[in-house]
Amino acid sequence: MVDPIRTHDVGTAAKRSPVSGMSVEQLVAEHHAVLYRYAFRLTGRAADAEDLTQQTFLQAQSSLHQLREPAAARGWLFTILRNAWQRSCRQRLRLPLEPAEVDVNHLPHEVPDHPLDSEALQQALDQLPDGYKQVLLMYYFEDCSYKEIAEKTGLAAGTVMSRLSRAKDHLRKRLFAREFGLPGDDSSSDLPQQTGPATPTSTARRP
Amino acid sequence: MRKFDGNMDDREKLLWIDAQVAGSLAEGPLAGDLFADDADARDLSERVQQCDKAVRRSLDDVNVPQGLSSRILARLASARAESTPAMVEDAPAILAMSTDAASTFPPEQTQPDQSPQTPISRRRWFWRSAAAALFVGTGGLSLYSYLNRPSAELGAEDLWNHFHDQFAQQSARAKAGRPFLQAPRAEFPVCDLTVGASVRGWQPVNTLDRSGVCYFLQSGNEQAVLWVLPLVGNPPIAPHLTTEALEASQNTGGVTVSVWKSSDLLYVLAGSDVTAFAAKGRRLT
Questions:
Q1: Could you tell me if the ipTM is greater than 0.85?
Q2: More confident residue, B26 or B39
Q3: In chain B, what residues touch A111 (CB-CB under 8 Å)?
Q4: Cα–Cα distance, A28 to A23 (Å, whole number)
Q5: Structural domain of A138
């Protein structure tokens, strides 16, 4: 084995944040799985999710000095990931947003104990415009309140509430209305569709 | 934006309820008696929370590919190597270290970086290629003039910043249990400021285009790293560097870096508490 001590002192070791004391290897070990899941739900494709996850850690490695608190690492990584995803979305064409009414009838009175269909969930997510998907996943993955989402995205609080409610309503209609025969399962979205990479055949289980 | 109101219709209430963080109704206008007195809102909230719980559980139902963390670590090591040209010489060490790091993840198989090209990565490589072409086309002249320009002197602040980063790397190596060399180097003596500290070992280093040594010191529970390098070299060191250790210190992020000179040698002491290693104001011999 090569003795690294006898080699040049040029920084072959991974960087460690001088403030938080965390190395990028620690970040990978602790957060790569949740970041991949988040990336998969954002992109809908396994290959894109892996690439996005790798980009996130590359950015984290070069900005490791910005990480002050180990406890803030996950939120910091989520922010890097979201920003990278947004940059990748800018080339995608989107239709103008149109309002959709939220319908309380899409809310089931009982939710089954068995897991929801993960592929159906991804299909429903893929039907959402990027701005809605981002708000929705910040709510579910990052446990952000609408106020926190507004602060992080720069959107008005009312816009966040509207997008969040409409996006959740869209999921409920797709996931629960079908299961319980509730009104609204017309297999088409009230929300505006977007052009871009075709993802409706993506599967959550495909590595 | 309208405030929450018990007289809202169900759809408007749902807008507010959907915005609450799951499992917590303590935020905003739904707090307190207002919500407690509204049976409709309470029923809606319970149903929304059931749905949220199911969706959240399903969102996590994604299989993480085998070997993902290993591929990430390999790509990170590759990026580090690219950003440090001199490290090309140390490719075996890089591979050894990245393999060491990857081996800390036993549940996954170590695989080479064979992630497929995706639209995201293709776009990135396109722009990287374009940037590289631009650099080659216009950078030649700049590089020529840069290489023929006298090097800027390194002042105390440059040295603090440089060795602050070096300290983090050396500490990581020390914690990783890398073996030290024990035989002292007469041409790079440990100065008498470190009287009371024991030398745990040393290693040769090449940094700032200089070849020197790096001593690992211990005093009680405190540890520090002392670099001893030739003062003469390129880039040049500012001639007004002090000969007093603790008068030339900077504390950043809990790490103090002290830089001073003695005759033809540059001394750099870094640690969380360098006072344990150096008597204030004491001159070098």
A1: no
A2: B39
A3: 50-51, 53-54
A4: 9
A5: 118-180
